[in-house]
């Protein structure tokens, strides 16, 4: 068993008892899963604070720089490339695929009915396209067996109506890779390197393995023997699971998926990726899928990230955004190691051993008198709502008791605010005032004094300072007798 010093943080970042518990967890995972080797890592608040490994060979274990094949974690990288295209205005997620790939689908003999699936449906696995590629087991055979998209999909690729339900589709991501290539005019792997890997500082993530890298093994299910698995270039299926990476590189990707990076994608867009794209099953759902990211509920936490498997390898990246923690597990066995559970446990161990300290309260750098006057109690009908002023002129609207509608609001240049989450996400908050006074505007170019605030308007919802007061701007009619007993 080895513990490697994190490249981005001091070795003593975690307490010794925490490090021991983490090492114990991956040791149990390697032994119970009968993995030739297993690596684990933890990211906390943007830093790789721990990594460790367990190997079948005494005195020899992989380092944080050792590559493993990461399988379907590749899909999250491809999704980022597609969302970059969307953010640049080169496509819309509601676009049918044929809008951008009609000529190629026709030339390569792909059933054009697949073109009805939208970009969003492909990202979220709701396109209804077949789960696997045509022909022999695509993960263990060379991509040359499928020289064109027609050979990937074959006959009847559309298995379910588009948009109706979640149906995981590996070939669907082959189409997304083709979409990236069409829009960028370069192979998807080259686009990946240029637009994600280089900006995020991930030099050890690649399409083909680069030394040092682990070998992939199949362990016999009923005997402690093993044989080596093939390593194939999957060709058109590469966007579904081709990549190799390291715990150190995936730690940097985890930080990006948590906070965003304007060189790649904004924080708003990465947050969009991790919202369920289809309604989860039941109120107590445990798993869902966003736009290229899986979601998991475990131990009272909401994780996002992705799992991966290829012949000879299994992997997991789970992130708890609320706790600013991520767990990474890589193993070189076709099956056996429960990497999803181990990665979640790494997060749990750190959270339980070293719960984060809250950020110290600090006052705002300056007080905005106009905004300060807006804070306090408002009423939507008879519902009591509180408005709070946050840093940088942000506002937060929410119920004072019980459940109810609320949102954070970002200030805009035109003097309005835009809702970022909750019921009012995307809606506009306006402060409605009486007409401005002429004072202060005589000849010196300064604006007039702002008028008196009458109400707040949030997507036509009117919030007043008193409930149903005739002096306030209450939509509709009011009982002329006003408030009375009975």
Describe this protein's structure.
- This protein has 486 residues and is α+β, with helices and mostly antiparallel strands.
- It folds into two domains: 1-361, Beta-lactamase (3-Layer(aba) Sandwich), CATH 3.40.710.10; 369-463, no CATH class.
- 25% of the residues lie in helices and 21% in strands.
- The protein contains eleven helices and 20 strands.
- The strands form four sheets. An eight-stranded antiparallel β-sheet has the order 1-3-2-12-11-10-9-8, sandwiched between helices. An eight-stranded antiparallel β-sheet has the order 13-14-15-16-17-18-19-20. A two-stranded antiparallel ribbon has the order 4-7.
- Helix 1 packs antiparallel against helix 10, helix 2 runs parallel beside helix 6 and helix 2 (73-87) packs across helix 7 (188-200).
- The longest helix is centred in the first third of the chain and has 18 residues, at 16-33.
- The radius of gyration is 27 Å and the shape is globular.
- It comes from Streptomyces zagrosensis.
- Residues 368-465 form the DUF7586 domain.
- Residues 27-350 form the Beta-lactamase-related domain.
- This is CubicO group peptidase (Beta-lactamase class C family).
């Amino acid at each position: 068993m080895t513990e490697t010093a994190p490249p981005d943080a001091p070795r003593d970042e975690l307490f010794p008892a925490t490090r021991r518990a983490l090492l114990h967890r991956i040791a149990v995972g390697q032994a119970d899963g009968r993995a030739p080797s297993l690596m684990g890592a933890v990211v906390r608040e943007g830093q790789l604070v721990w990594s460790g490994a367990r190997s079948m060979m005494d005195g020899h274990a992989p380092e944080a720089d050792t590559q493993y094949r990461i399988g379907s974690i590749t899909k999250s990288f491809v999704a980022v490339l597609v969302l970059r295209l969307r953010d640049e205005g080169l496509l819309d997620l509601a676009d049918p695929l044929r809008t951008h790939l009609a000529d190629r689908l026709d030339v390569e003999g792909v059933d054009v009915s697949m073109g009805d699936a939208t970009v969003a449906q492909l990202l979220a696995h709701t396109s209804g396209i077949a789960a696997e590629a045509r022909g022999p087991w695509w993960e263990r055979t060379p991509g040359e067996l499928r020289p064109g998209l027609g050979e990937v999909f074959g006959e009847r690729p559309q298995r379910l109506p588009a948009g109706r339900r979640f149906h995981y589709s590996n070939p669907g991501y082959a189409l997304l890779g083709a979409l990236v290539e069409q829009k960028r005019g370069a192979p998807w792997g080259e686009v990946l390197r240029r637009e994600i890997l280089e900006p995020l500082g991930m030099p050890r993530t690649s399409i083909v393995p680069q030394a040092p890298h682990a070998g992939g093994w199949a362990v016999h299910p009923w005997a402690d023997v093993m044989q080596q698995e093939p390593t194939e270039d999957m060709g058109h299926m590469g966007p579904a699971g081709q990549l190799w990476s390291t715990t150190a590189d995936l730690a940097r990707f985890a930080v990006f998926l948590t906070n965003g990076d304007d060189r790649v994608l904004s924080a708003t867009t990465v947050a969009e990726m991790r919202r369920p794209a289809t309604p989860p099953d039941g109120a107590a759902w445990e798993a869902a899928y966003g736009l290229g990211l899986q979601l998991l509920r475990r131990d009272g936490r909401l994780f996002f990230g992705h799992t991966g498997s290829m012949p000879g390898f299994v992997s997991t990246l789970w992130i708890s955004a609320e706790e600013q923690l991520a767990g990474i597990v890589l193993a070189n066995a076709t099956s056996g190691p429960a990497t999803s559970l181990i990665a979640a446990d790494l997060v749990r161990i750190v959270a339980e051993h070293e719960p984060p300290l809250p950020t110290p309260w600090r006052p705002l750098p300056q007080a905005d008198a106009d905004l300060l006057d807006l804070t306090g109690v408002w009423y939507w009908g008879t519902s009591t709502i509180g408005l709070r002023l946050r840093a940088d002129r942000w506002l937060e609207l929410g119920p004072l008791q019980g459940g109810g509608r609320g949102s954070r609001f970002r200030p805009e240049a035109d003097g309005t605010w835009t809702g970022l989450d909750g019921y009012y996400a995307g809606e506009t908050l306006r402060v409605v005032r009486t007409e401005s006074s002429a004072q202060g505007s005589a000849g010196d170019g300064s604006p007039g004094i702002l008028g008196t605030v009458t109400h707040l308007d949030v997507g036509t919802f009117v919030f007043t300072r008193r409930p149903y007061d005739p002096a306030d701007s209450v939509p509709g009619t009011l009982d002329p007798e006003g408030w009375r007993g009975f």
